[in-house]
Fold this sequence. Notes:
Blueprint lengths: L2 H4 L3 H14 L2 H5 L2 E9 L7 E4 L1 H15 E14 L2 E12 L5 E13 L2 E9 L1 H8 L2
Parallel strand pairs: 1-6
Antiparallel strand pairs: 1-2, 3-4, 4-5, 5-6
Amino acid sequence: MSEFAESAAPADVVRRQYLASAAGDLEALRATLAPDVEWTEMAGFPLAGTYRTPDGVTSHVMERLGKDWDDWTAHDDTYVVDGENVVVLARYTATHKATGKAIDVRVAHHFVVRGGLIVRFEQFVDTALVRDAMTP
């Protein structure tokens, strides 16, 4: 196993989460999340709310995104790390299945990583752009 795959460094844990998400590997994604994780999707976002437990996060967020969107991907490009805090500047790309409209929207994610696991996540995104793509 590679050093990266075993690393408990906060940025490495977060990067593994993005790679698992992009690959559609929900088992690997759940492995990056603490049992008591709090995952918050921004108010105004279609999946707004706070989800708990690794299964709760993947079933209420990732699986639902996969049902409504084709090729939903979070492209992580800039990491700002301060101890257990990791802020990632990224963008979402996807095409809404019902409308055929594509998005390419900037996003910021704040993760808190302790003991090699993500314990908290908060999303910041222009929800109007996402909702516009969902509107016929």
